[in-house]
């Protein structure tokens, strides 16, 4: 892990220890710069915003495109970057862990993993296993829930 990534993760952890804070979503380097100027202490990528700016529907970007985007965001700022890592680009826990390890290499300070694929929630047991695998792969999971009215338990 680079010194910059380590410092970013420590800063992100300290923000969480202080309580709630705003975590705005840049979709590109330009919007990231504007958020920096506004004085935010950290940012989080947006899967939908980046997908739309690249001409894709949300949740359809290839994993490697998202990894490249995360790498670019992290390289462009000294702020901690939390990754909207969709559903981890895998259904099985081992795949999620492997992909989270790849995300960690981009310099992110933390990430969120969704509990659904499309409009269906993952089975509770599988969801727990996926989060445990992600947690084992990175020391920076962020508690975040994006609600979809279409999401329903399987």
TrEMBL record:
InterPro entries: Pyrv/PenolPyrv_kinase-like_dom, Pyrv_kinase-like_dom_sf. Transmembrane segments: none annotated. SUPFAM superfamilies: Phosphoenolpyruvate/pyruvate domain (SSF51621). Signal peptide: none annotated. GO terms for molecular function: catalytic activity. It holds the Pfam family PEP_mutase. This is 2-methylisocitrate lyase.
